[in-house]
Structure formats: C-alpha cells, structure tokens
Write a structure and sequence with these properties.
Oligomer: single chain
CATH class: Alpha Beta
CATH superfamily: P-loop containing nucleotide triphosphate hydrolases
Helix content: 25-40%
CATH architecture: 3-Layer(aba) Sandwich
Bound molecules: adenosine-5'-triphosphate, magnesium ion
Order of helices and strands: EEEHEEHEHHHHEHE
Number of strands: 8
Distance between the termini: 18 Å
Length: about 230
C-alpha cells in the first residue's frame, strides 16, 4: 500500500503477565496510509500489542510513539481516551458494543471526541449545540450507510447478527476520525476494504491482527476485495 510519513513507531515493547511474556521486544513502524497485517499463532501476543498501543495494558519496557513529525507523542503512560484523542481507534477481538444502545447511538458515542458541547455549553449556546448534534447525526448516518447499516439505525446493537456487529464496531471506530485504525480479527474482508478505503479515512493507516490479509485471495491488499 501507499506509504507516507512515519505515524506509529513501536520500539522494543515488552509486556509480561507474571511469568508469561506476552509480547517480547516488538519493534514496528507504520506509515501514513499503510496497511499492515499482524500475523501470529494463537497466544502470540497480537491482542496484547493492540492493548499496549491503546493503553489498556502498560508495557514494562519499550516505547510507542504516535503522530506526525514534530507532533509525535509517547502513548505509554496515557489513558485510553487520550490515545483516542491522539488519533488511534480500535475494534476488539471479542466485540464490545454498547449492547443496550441503538446502532446509531453506538456510532454517536464514537463521535464524541469530535464534538465539544457539554452541558454548560449546551445551556449557554443552544443553537451551537443543536448544530453540533445535527452534524454528529448526519455523520453517523453517513457511516452507517457506508457499512450498509442505515436500515438498522434504530435497532439495538445486541439484536444484530455477528457479522453486522463487527461492521458496526468498525463504523464506531471510524467515527473518531482516526489516523490509525487497529482491527483485532476483523474477519471480514468486505467490511475491512470499506474501512480502509472509505472517504472518512483516506489517509488512515491500519493494522489488522490475524491472517486474512495474508490470504492469497486478498493479494495482501484489502483494496482488491470486490466491493
Ligand atoms: N490479562 C492477561 N493476563 C494473563 N495473561 C494474559 C493476559 N492477556 C493475555 N495473556 C497471555 O498473553 C499471551 C498473548 O495473548 P494474546 O491474547 O495477546 O495473543 P493473540 O496473539 O491475540 O492470540 P489469539 O490469536 O488467540 O487472539 C497468551 O499466553 C495469553 O494467555
Ligand atoms: Mg488476539
């Protein structure tokens, strides 16, 4: 895939759980627009590496730096929501949607880092907060359309079939307009191809854990998946 400026720089990251070394001195660079497949046996440490990048696990050693030249930040030590604000979004191996919220609401949650109106702002400037609400609604709807989920917008997330839940997770992750998207076993080339090429993430880089990027049918490039 096209490569641009260095975006993610992982250097000698090690994460242990007691005596288990889940990730051992991993180094990896990801450039803007690049799509990287993270391939390994069960238990190799793929999910743990994602957890280290997104601050849900803290590595004992190593450095994870993210961002453009001059603005690159150390992610180790940040909180998960701060990592999202830096421009990293992810999906989970075991899907984690807000089961009792609707499909639309799940995407709206993903958009919250891009909106600013809190309670006080809403009281002080109702027009502005209404405009922002409309913007968020339109953007969420566009994402749902992209993933063919618009007809299900008012359904509870828990009512969706497994494959649709996966797609919804990707849509929610993209709502935060990430520069780097981490997909833990996306398991569906079509949804991934849309994620990788949709206009919401033209310059987005992605790392996908597991094997599908390596399958010959995908030619190593999700862009080759028929739409
Ligand atoms: N919270 C934890 N506590 C203890 N051990 C853990 C924890 N998380 C992961 N591990 C261990 O770390 C190792 C790496 O696990 P991880 O889930 O990252 O592998 P993986 O490559 O994602 O595997 P899979 O392909 O099955 O998803 C495994 O030995 C696992 O048992
Ligand atoms: Mg895993």
């Amino acid at each position: 895939m096209a490569t641009g400026e260095l975006l993610l720089q992982i250097e000698r990251v090690t994460k242990r759980f007691g005596g288990v070394v889940a990730v051992s001195e991993v180094s990896l660079d990801v450039r803007q627009g690049e799509i990287v497949g993270l391939i390994g046996l069960n238990g190799a440490g793929k999910t743990t590496l994602f957890n280290c990048i997104t601050a849900t696990a803290r590595p004992e050693e190593g450095s994870i730096r993210f961002g453009r030249e001059g603005f690159r930040e150390q992610l180790v030590g940040l909180l998960p929501h701060q990592v999202v604000e830096c421009g990293v979004a992810r999906t989970f191996q075991n899907i984690r949607l807000f089961a009792n919220m609707t499909v639309l609401e799940n995407v709206l949650v993903g958009l919250h880092t891009r909106t600013h109106a809190g309670l006080l702002e809403a009281l002080a400037d109702r027009q502005h907060s209404r405009r922002e609400e409309r913007w968020a609604h339109d953007r969420a709807t566009a994402l749902l359309q992209l993933f063919d989920l618009a007809p299900k917008a008012s359904h509870l997330a828990s009512s969706l079939a497994f494959g649709l839940q996966r797609r919804l997770e990707i849509a929610r992750a993209l709502a935060s307009e990430p520069e780097l998207l981490l997909l833990d076993e996306p398991a569906g080339g079509k949804a991934f191809a849309k994620a990788a090429h949709c206009r919401f993430c033209e310059s987005c880089a992605a790392i996908a854990a597991k094997d599908f990027l390596a399958r010959p049918a995908f030619g190593g490039c999700p862009g080759q998946v028929p739409p």
